[in-house]
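Lab meeting prep.
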Amino acid sequence: MDPNEDTEWNDILRSKGILPEKEPDVDDVLDDALVDAKELAHENRLEKKTLDELDELEDEEDDEFLQIYRNKRIEEWKQRMSKAKYGSVYPISKPEYTQEVTEDSKNVFVVVHMFQDSIPACKLLNGILERLAPMYPQIKFVKIAGKQAVENYPDIMMPTLLVYGHGDLQQQFLTLTTLGGMGTTVYDVAKALVHAGALKEGEIAPLRESSSLNFESGRRDNEADEEEDYDDFD
């Protein structure tokens, strides 16, 4: 008698505890796991979709199913907005740095722009940050004159972009070279913030279509405020 055979007699013996339970077939286990994985992937196929992307699927997905994910995205947006405290690029001084940057970064991400107002690349980056700040008010954007932050900080290193989070420096970008040079866009900087952990990939999706936005496009809106802010460091 083969105890591994699928016979009625063996089933009776197994039910009585006389024979041990039959070992599951490895192929069957793998097939079941694959089916479960495919079902889970199908169920979660909309998990990372933005509201705009969900709207584009109206003809492909069930309305009730889509609405579940729309509601999730709206709730996530409400939660982000409930944490929103900022919305502008705030000038800070060296004595304020520890509190405004290091300490505050224990609770929120803080983006620091070290600038020199005579450097065109600094003006470009500041204009971009002025665009990003109201888009992501949960992030604290600040700026400080480079030589005020660090004595004799070389102009060749500016602009310097620092991203703080969890009470520590998470990422630094020296000059615009790594971001796109003088062609750096709002989307380029947003991607850098994703890389640093300050934003999620889905949060910058709307910027893809407007990635040509840069300082020149926002200069007229921000020029007066920037000049006033820079004067604070004279």
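Slide two material, second protein:
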Amino acid sequence: MLGSSRLLLATVVIIAVGVIALPSTVSLFAGQHYWYNVNQSGNDIPCEKCHADVFEELNQSKFHVNWGGNNYADRNDCAACHRGNTSITYAADDGTAGGGWVSGKQAHAASVVACMLCHEWSPDETNNYGPPAGGFNVSDFGVTSPYNYGTKNGTYEAHNAFIARAIQDGTLQDANEACIACHTHVAVKITWNHSRALEFNIGFGNPITTANGPHNWTITSWTINGTATAVVWGNTTGSGSTTYSTNWPGNVPGVNYK
């Protein structure tokens, strides 16, 4: 009788342990033991599985889709940008006998990339992965970058301040914020603060008329005054709109004056 009781108790304990422990040994996800083969040449991990939104955008672009030898987005296009930095060691396995694998160092699968990695300016303008940008001057703004923005002056470029501020910002790599704002369909919202008025005084010169007859005017007290604020919304189609208000007759339509 005692032996039967012990056997029953042991059975209950085993069942209880099974109820508690066995569920934790069951695979949580279907497919989690079916590994991708990374021993082949090329990029064997399906980037599009997690980054389908990027693939959809890239498939609508005429650029950066040709590294796979076709005109649509594929994994070779991903690798060209995000595994193409020669200063970074990425994890890899070429499938050769004896363990032809490489352990990742600065990055495992992919790295963030600066547009200027391929588009920086080179002295002969031929040693570039892509068309060189050039024509910028960010040094006047006290900004430095590991990439060459052009040594051919760039003093007259209207976007120098924009590029310099993008380099200082840490949201994206280097000046990528400025690059994508201008060159892609990303939406932008800009608050512009313009001067309200150009003000100056005009008086007679001495002599009043010039040798050829026209009046001789003098211009003094050349200043700017007031502020006109404009909020510009640039949408993904490339068109823009403003959120202004018109306060009194004579204003420029759509400008909010302060």
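Talking points for slide two:
Helices lie at 2-21, 52-59, 75-82, 116-119, 160-168, 176-183.
The beta strands are 92-93, 101-102, 188-209, 215-234, 240-242, 256-257.
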